[in-house]
Write a structure and sequence with these properties.
- The radius of gyration is 14 Å and the shape is globular.
- It is α+β, with helices and mostly antiparallel strands.
- Strands 1, 2, 3, 4, 5, 6, 7 and 8 form an eight-stranded antiparallel beta sheet that branches.
- The protein contains three helices and eight strands.
- This is SRPBCC family protein.
């Protein structure tokens, strides 16, 4: 299952966005209002939970400055990645898009597609809070 957020323009440089997203603590600023839990578990990992959803642990898997970050599920039960693509628009502006890729059976994909689409859209829309 592949999902993508809308592209959002942020009035910050690509390098600034990259560095902000490299610090997993900053993901708390991007979370939706219905967050039930957010806990940093290491320099490159955090756990979050939304109301009515199971908690998910994400771990930084890959960094390609200043254009790409890849977070992945820390558990193999639900293998997926969340990729942040950052493109420079100008010295003070960049474009960010989040891509979600996961391997789920058809039933699970049907159940999680809506909530995950909404979740990555919210993360993208909140990029200006960094």
């Amino acid at each position: 299952m592949n999902l993508q957020s809308p592209k959002v323009t942020v009035e910050k440089s690509a390098q600034y966005i990259f560095e902000s997203l490299s610090n997993v603590k900053n993901f708390e600023k991007l979370m939706p209002e219905n967050i039930a839990k957010f806990e940093v578990t290491g320099d490159d990992s955090f756990i979050f939970g939304l109301k009515g959803m199971p908690e998910i642990k994400l771990k930084m898997k890959e960094k390609t400055p200043p254009n790409k970050l890849v977070l992945g599920a820390a558990s193999d039960k639900l293998p997926f990645t969340l990729t942040g693509n950052i493109n420079t628009v100008s010295d003070t502006s960049s474009e960010v898009q989040l891509l979600f890729e996961g391997e789920f059976n058809a039933m699970m994909a049907m159940m999680v597609k809506g909530p995950i689409s909404k979740f990555i859209e919210t993360l993208a829309k909140n990029m200006h809070k960094l």
